[in-house]
Amino acid sequence: MLKDRIFYPLAALIVFGMIALALSFGQRVDLTECEIWSEGYIMSGEELVRLTAQPGTQAVYVAAAGGEPAYARLTSTAARESLPDDKPGVFAPIGPQYERAFATHKLRMTVTARASRLNPLESFDIGYFSAGSGDSDWERHRLTSDWVEYALEFRPGALTNRQGLDHASIWPGETGELLNMDVRDIRVRVLDPPGACAG
After folding, report:
1. Could you report the per-residue pLDDT of 56-71, keeping only the tens digit for each?
2. How far apart are CA 155 and CA 139, in angstroms?
3. What is the pLDDT of residues 70-107, one digit of tens each?
4. pTM for the structure as a whole
């Protein structure tokens, strides 16, 4: 068994590596602010492999087949209250260029989801969290067996010196029920883009 002084730095390195790997799977880093304001952020299809599951949660990518779209199956394995407060659950990693463009603007985060056919989850939470411009609260939604769009609106504050990844986050059952939900896409739109960049 590793001693704490070795385990925790090693665990932090592994998590950092997972996030870096997730960002390496194709998120464009050359977008202008105007493009971000007009097009927003979307993760869907094969990009769902980039979902990052923090301790206490799991995300499994399911490829499109038999007329079904690609989706990710999400599960919680531990109660949220048993984990440190800064755990964002399963999240879409949104890079620094988005954080800069999203700061101070009203955002709508939308998750298209359903209860899984196997061990279906009844409700889940969504939230938007940033490295330096503020976090939303968790907002609970009730799942159905059909694909439904669930939305959260939030306005981050101004940027601080602490910048990095934003997290478009999902907590699939806060008490660790080991039940499942499916996610087809995650989107973030700017609701108040500057006039010249409005899409």
Report:
1. 999 999 999 999 999 9
2. 14
3. 999 999 999 988 887 767 899 999 998 899 899 999 99
4. 0.82
CB 115 within 8 A of CB 171: no
Report the C-alpha dihedral over residues 141, 144, 146, 151, rounded to 10 degrees: -10
At a CB cut-off of 8 Å and minimum separation 6, what does 32 contact?
Answer: none
Cα gap 146→112, rounded to integer Å: 10
- Do 118 and 193 touch, CB atoms closer than 8 A? no
Spatial distance between the Cα atoms of 128 and 45, rounded to a whole number of angstroms: 21
Reading the block at residue 23, the tokens are 């960002």
Residues 102-113 as b/e (b if ≥16 CB within 10 A, e otherwise) read bbebebebbbbb
Q: Are 144 and 188 in contact (CB under 8 A)?
A: no
Q: What angle do CA 42, 126, 161 make, to 5 degrees?
A: 75
Q: How far is the first Cα of the chain from the last one, in angstroms, to the nearest whole number?
A: 55
Length of the chain: 199
According to DSSP, the residues that pair with 160 across neighbouring strands are none
* Mean pLDDT along residues 17-38: 62
Residue 148's Cα: distance from chain center in Å? 17
